[in-house]
């Protein structure tokens, strides 16, 4: 038995997609662990914890014929395990199904064993006969799109993954005439090692965000270094000038020396 909670709010202005209940801004999914019969959640040390957290303001799945956004009222399901977790999302009367599979792995490195988790598989099932997004679709019907040898969102174990930048994942569709692309933006997710409900662990930033942050801070760092160099140079000049000013001037003209004897 799985207990799940979801929270959906309006989408940012200008986002595409039809939603009879209003546009979506931020979509948050929380899954509780698999529980024995008669229990809504599995207890860990006397406390009940969610096992997967996802905050996702924008998710789009694009085919050659439609731009499909996750809408209000989506159904959240899934399963959680020690080394494998799966998130399932259904919307528009289950015309669209998105499945995300996460795995946690250990690797031997020069520093010893290190554990990471990653997104290992994406599956998108869509019905092109659904009229909200598809108009006069060719070969209308149910189709499945899958990722191929996927290794995305790689994150050290015990940390959450956060990325503000837009990321694209290409999927291969069962309909050879269609291509499917999943686009994520401003994603924050943690499928393993949840310590406290509603609280993400320390963030692991994606390389794009880290590079953008470096590009923003590098001019400031260079400015501080340049300022420090100028201050040090002025200080050395001031000390040197003060020391030379206090020295006794020795006359160069020998006639200025007093006659001895």
Automatic annotation (TrEMBL):
The source's domain of life comes to Eukaryota
Q: Name one GO biological process term.
A: establishment of protein localization to organelle
Give all residue intervals belonging to the Ig-like domain.
Answer: 57-181
Transmembrane region(s): 218-237
Q: Which Gene3D superfamilies match?
A: 2.40.160.110
What are the alphabetically sorted keywords of the record? Cell membrane, Cell projection, Cytoplasmic vesicle, Endosome, Glycoprotein, Membrane, Signal, Synapse, Transmembrane, Transmembrane helix
Q: Report the coiled-coil segments.
A: none
Q: Does the keyword Signal apply?
A: yes
Location in or out of the cell: Cell projection, Dendrite; Cell projection, Growth cone membrane; Cytoplasmic vesicle, Secretory vesicle, Synaptic vesicle membrane; Early endosome membrane
A cellular component annotation (GO) from this entry: late endosome membrane
Region listing for Disordered, in residue ranges: 1-23
Q: What is its main location?
A: other
Q: Which PROSITE patterns match?
A: IG_LIKE
Q: How does it sit in the membrane?
A: Single-pass type I membrane protein
Indicate the family of this protein. Answer: Belongs to the LAMP family.
Matching PANTHER family: LYSOSOME-ASSOCIATED MEMBRANE GLYCOPROTEIN, LYSOSOME-ASSOCIATED MEMBRANE GLYCOPROTEIN 5
Task: Give the protein's function.
Answer: Plays a role in short-term synaptic plasticity in a subset of GABAergic neurons in the brain.
User: What's the protein here called?
Assistant: Lysosome-associated membrane glycoprotein 5
